[in-house]
Amino acid sequence: MNRKYRKTVIAGNWKMNKTPSETKEFMTQFKAIMPKGRWCDIALCVPAVCIPAAVRAMRETRVGIGAENVNANASGAYTGEIAANMLVDAGCKYVIIGHSERRAMGETDADVNAKVLAALEVGLVPIMCCGETLEQREAGITAEHIAMQIKLGLQGVSEDKIRKVVIAYEPIWAIGTGKTATPEQAEEVCESIRTVVRKLYSSKNARAISILYGGSMNEKNAYELLAQPDIDGGLIGGASLVPEKFVQIIEAANQPTV
Ligand code: PGA
After folding, report:
1. Closest CA to 235 of 26, 6, 15
2. Catalytic: 170?
3. Which residue has the least CA distance to atom 1 on ligand 1?
4. Using an 8 Å Cβ cutoff, are 128 and 99 in contact?
5. I want to staple 72 with a disulfide (CB 3.0 to 4.6 A). Which of 79, 82, 114, 184 is the partner?
6. In this structure, is residue 1 part of a structural domain?
7. Active-site hit among 99, 101, 187, 219
8. What are phi and psi of 133, to 5 degrees?
């Protein structure tokens, strides 16, 4: 982290977990133990049907609610889909885009790019995900693969909008497996992402953008991961479903930075 130049963001990704009633229950417990300090931004990205309950429960707090997907089109005949302006009207501040679980369902880099542009258009903060498979890591093409995902995902994002984008590096082999990347492995890739942003935009923008790590981040390994200079927060799956664990990760972000 580097609080001097950029925000630290601790974001939960609930995936397909919790009903609206369970959301209400979680939020009550979470609010009761939520740290008062403001050392990081806090986001909870929840299933679409849970958004109203989450927004209602967190109204008087600084926790931003987010969605886990968005359709790139503004409106129209897209049965079952949700447009970016609907998320804003429902009270969302964030949206996860291009999670590897969605890419596995067929989402392409071009889709990710269109969704990032749609989110920025309405003022949502896109949390754009990238990450390599174990095969790609073992073949030594992690940096190239990630650079390609970042370049394609950010196409057409203007100089004045790039700072609104949050990037999440999530090695696919670390998601939900309990196999966290080491702080060194995660730092290496997050640093390389910042270099890609520097080349695409400028040093100032690269310095200002928040890059998160995700993949089995939990209350035990968060401190060490967040201590890395280019890891500006976390995108947390499993551990964000338990209020105590999520709070401990938020607390781990309360550490001295350069
Ligand atoms: P995990 O998920 O923390 O359960 O590994 C992270 C994610 O997929 O965002």
Report:
1. 15
2. yes
3. 237
4. no
5. 114
6. no
7. 99
8. -85, 170
Question: How far is C-alpha 211 from the chain's CA centre?
Answer: 8
For the segment 146-175, the average pLDDT, to the nearest whole number, is: 97
Predicted local confidence at residue 197, as pLDDT:
98
Domain for residue 30, yes or no?
yes
Q: 201 phi and psi, to 5 degrees?
A: -120, -100
Q: Specify if 93 maps to a domain.
A: yes
Domain that holds residue 202: 8-253
Sole residue written with tokens 């079952």: 80
Residue 230: inside a domain: yes
Please identify, by atom number, the ligand 1 atom nearest to the C-alpha of residue 174: 5
How many structural domains compose the chain? 1
In the annotation, is 145 catalytic? no
* Ligand 1 pocket by Cβ (under 6 Å): 13, 170, 175-176, 214-217, 235-239
* CATH number of 86's domain: 3.20.20.70
Q: Which residue has a Cα nearest atom 3 of ligand 1?
A: 237
**pLDDT, tens digit (0-9, with 9 covering 90-100), for 94-144:** 999 999 999 999 999 999 999 999 999 999 999 999 999 999 999 999 999
Q: Which helix (H) or strand (E) holds 14?
A: none
**CA angle at 109 for the pair 106 and 120, rounded to the nearest 5°:** 115
Tokens found for residue 73: 């089109």
- In the reported structure, the alpha carbon of residue 40 is separated from the centroid of ligand 1 by a whole-number distance in angstroms of 19
pLDDT: which is higher, 218 or 180: 218
Distance CA 106, CA 77 (A): 20
Adjacent-strand bridge partners of 43: 11, 64
Q: Which helix (H) or strand (E) holds 86?
A: helix 84-89
> What local confidence, expressed as pLDDT, does residue 172 receive?
97
Are 57 and 94 in contact, with CB atoms under 8 Å apart?
no
**How does residue 202 score in pLDDT terms, banded at 50, 70 and 90?**
very high
